[in-house]
Design the sequence.
């Protein structure tokens, strides 16, 4: 069935899915160019934003396209599937995880792919796209894939999977991640793909969830232990702010960042996170800079998408 021909323009623009694709590279411009060229081959998927960080040696692409269903047969189609797979293939063809290092944890060249519903699309529809992409990556590239939240049969949380896989444990200088240092045969069976890990590619986690806001707060310090205390006491896990996950990361000389995921930004927003970090940092005798969002809001992403497809 030709889903593209059967979908109406209005439906395309009301049933949208946003994909955030995290790749372990930001310093190799030829690799990034290859990945972006692959994305641009798909005219129905729009790159809304790109966020790269040299210290973390990591890039995130924010993409949007529509999702539609077949006539009564339950099948799902989204151009995101083709676009993401093309970018993944380009990433695997140009990046070797064994040669990668950075101040941000990662499990693979393609480290994390998350899908969020936009406009009138549902979380279930975002999860369907996530599972299709996961199956393709596992089968085509023979990379182990772990699913999370709405894409997982039991709704397993992302941070639970990461802890089980050793994601948060640096393997170089106590604050850096370099090469592949985990077992090549996985104890946990992946949801897609083999149990053997190719060291050059690693593992990928893929999921679907309601919107998650990412917000980083810079600290003027080189005291890793103090920054980790602040991160822990700012997080829900450490008895701090509900719905907030944090990580203390080195971000250049005399600089750290409290990298935050706000799982329910309507409950706890960036202002509360900023205030909490400032209070805790004052107790440690360190200065705090103004935090920043690493991506646009879902409303702004929708607005940018509509403008781009209208002008196209």
Sequence:
């Amino acid at each position: 069935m030709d889903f593209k021909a059967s979908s109406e323009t209005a439906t395309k623009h009301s049933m949208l899915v946003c994909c955030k694709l995290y790749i372990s590279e930001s310093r190799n411009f030829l690799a990034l160019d290859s990945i972006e060229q692959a994305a641009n081959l798909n005219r129905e998927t729009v790159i809304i934003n790109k966020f790269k960080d040299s210290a973390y040696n990591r890039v995130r692409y924010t993409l949007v396209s529509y999702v539609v269903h077949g006539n009564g047969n339950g099948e799902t189609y989204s151009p995101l599937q083709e676009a993401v797979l093309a970018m993944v293939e380009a990433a695997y063809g140009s990046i070797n995880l064994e040669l990668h290092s950075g101040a941000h944890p990662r499990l693979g060249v393609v480290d994390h792919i998350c899908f969020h519903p936009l406009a009138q699309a549902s979380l279930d529809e975002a999860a369907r796209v996530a599972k299709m992409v996961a199956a393709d990556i596992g089968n085509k590239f023979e990379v182990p894939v772990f699913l999370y939240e709405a894409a997982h049969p039991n709704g397993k949380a992302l941070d639970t999977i990461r802890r089980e896989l050793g994601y948060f444990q640096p393997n170089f200088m106590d604050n850096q991640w370099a090469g592949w240092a985990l077992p090549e045969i996985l104890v946990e069976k992946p949801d897609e793909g083999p149990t053997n890990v190719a060291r050059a590619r690693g593992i990928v986690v893929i999921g679907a969830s309601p919107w998650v806001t990412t917000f980083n707060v810079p600290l003027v310090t080189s005291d890793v232990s103090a920054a980790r205390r602040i991160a822990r006491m700012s997080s829900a896990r450490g008895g701090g702010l509900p719905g907030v996950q944090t990580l203390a990361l080195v971000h250049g000389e005399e600089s750290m960042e409290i990298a935050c995921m706000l799982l329910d930004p309507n409950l706890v927003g960036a202002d509360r996170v900023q205030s909490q970090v400032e209070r805790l940092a004052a107790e440690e005798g360190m200065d705090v800079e103004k935090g920043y969002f690493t991506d646009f809001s879902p409303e702004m992403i929708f607005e940018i998408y509509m403008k781009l497809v209208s002008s196209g």
Notes: The first strand starts at residue 15 and ends at 23. Residues 1-8 have pLDDT under 50 and may be disordered. Residues 123-140 form the longest helix (18 residues).
